[in-house]
Amino acid sequence: MWVVNFFHVQILVLECLFCFRLQKKKMFWLRLIPAVAAYLALPYVIPGGFFSPLFSWGWFTFGFLLMFLLSGALLWFCFRMHIRQLIFYCCAAHTIQHIVHCLYRITELVFVPSYTVAQLCQLVYMLVACGLVWYFLRERFGSSETVDIRNGHLVVFAAVSTLLIYVFSYWSTSRETDTVGMEFFDCFSCILLLIILLDIFRIRKAEKEQMLMERMLRQEQEQHEISSATVDVINRKCHDLRHQIAALRNMSSEEQERSIAELENAVLIYDSFPKSGNKDVDLILAEKSLLAEKHHIVIRSIVDGSRLSFMAVEELYSLLGNALDNAIEATTQEKDVERRIITLHAAARGNLMTIHVENPCEREPLFIDGLPVTSKSDTDYHGYGMRSMRYLCEKYKGVLTTSWDDGIFSLDILFPLEN
Questions:
Q1: Which of residues 100 and 142 earns the better pLDDT score?
Q2: Among 46-60, 121-135, 355-369, 377-391, whose mean pLDDT is lowest?
């Protein structure tokens, strides 16, 4: 009885390893503790556990499928994730657990150990599997990234493959003689499936992100050229307006005086643009300030742009332009006009260049891989603005972090000044 019920514990532990970096739902521990207790206690309440005759039909039992559904429901109850992520994590955890089971059966068939020794061997295999999963996630996906699944075909492949492994494995153990060769082949098939799932995902993810990064950088370089021309037009218009104002001063009409005041305010918009010591940064701030003013948003900035000279123009536009665009888009949702304030600080502190952007954000966003998920329907494209920023940070050995606290969204970037 204990051996049978131990399988669902292994599955839950492996699934939690995949989910430990995900954003947790509110009152996480109040959700997790009772949910885990109920999940662990359930097979002891049901006569025969998950392999009860109640869940069987002929030679087939729905025990593992029931584990799959219940463990998935537990993860969904405690963590914030997409359904595709959930299915992928459950499939990967079940595949790894089946590898542990195959090694345990091989040990039993080859060495015929005592019951206690066999269980200790299974525990050792499980600990090694958990260690390998932890190492893989840390080395392959970085310190803040998770296995973010966006490929629906890969998820379907994972689910069907996991089901086939379960069906054929149970068929062989219930209908045929269990042999060492059969367990070796079963174990090898699971290892091969796991490698295929994770490696195909990694390759496709890297190719897609690289393609979109390059595409966005090209678009942002074109946008930078357009913005430069726009600011030149503004400069010429401001110069013309000064002469027009001088001519209007000679008139005494009250209406003309009001027009003069409005024209002067328009000219002062340009004069109020910050001067950072980097003309490309000034250009970005000027354009985004004009855009923000259109939405009645104030950008308060203290920027030392001279320390960002190690970055190319299109990279600066991708980094600061994306950050301010996201902040402006989020701030436009703020109903209280007085709270429509965006703060931008960029300065050197010791051996680090720090960039801090914060803006009002009433609702806490969903975070995946440490980045907020776009609220737009086209997630395959719009979600890559923040990813392009992280890509640039990693290129220059920097770090990008995001957070939300009490209605304020914050973006922080650190660059070593050795760049």
A1: 100
A2: 377-391
Residue 128 in this model has a pLDDT that exceeds 90: yes
Domains located in the chain, CATH noted: 2-211 (no CATH), 291-419 (3.30.565.10)
C-beta of residue 43 within 8 angstroms of C-beta of residue 158: no
Of 190, 7, 191, 178, which Cα lies nearest the Cα of 108? Answer: 178
Does residue 104 carry a pLDDT above 80? yes
Alpha carbon of residue 43 to chain centroid = 35
pLDDT at 59: 65
For residue 75, give the amino acid letter.
L
263 CB-contact burial (10 Å; exposed 0-12 / middle 13-18 / buried 19+): middle
- How would you write the chain as a 3-class SS string? CHHHHHHHHHHHHHHHHHHCCCCECCCHHHHHHHHHHHHHHHHHHCCCHHHCHHHEECCEECHHHHHHHHHHHHHHHHECCCHHHHHHHHHHHHHHHHHHHHHHHHHHHHHCCCHHHHHHHHHHHHHHHHHHHHHHHHHHHCCCCCCCCCCHHHHHHHHHHHHHHHHHHHHHHHHCCCCHHHHHHHHHHHHHHHHHHHHHHHHHHHHHHHHHHHHHHHHHHHHHHHHHHHHHHHHHHHHHHHHHHHHHCCCCCHHHHHHHHHHHHHHHHHHCCCCCCCHHHHHHHHHHHHHHHHCCCEEEEEECHHHHCCCCHHHHHHHHHHHHHHHHHHHCCCCCHHHCEEEEEEEEECCEEEEEEEEECCCCCCEECCEECCCCCCHHHHCHHHHHHHHHHHHCCCEEEEEEECCEEEEEEEEECCC
Q: What is the pLDDT, as a whole number, of residue 359? A: 94
Strand-pair category, 56-57 with 60-61: antiparallel
Q: What is the pLDDT of residues 168-205, one digit of tens each?
A: 777 777 776 778 888 888 888 888 888 887 776 666 66
> Global pTM?
0.55
Q: What is the arithmetic mean of pLDDT over 68-86?
A: 88
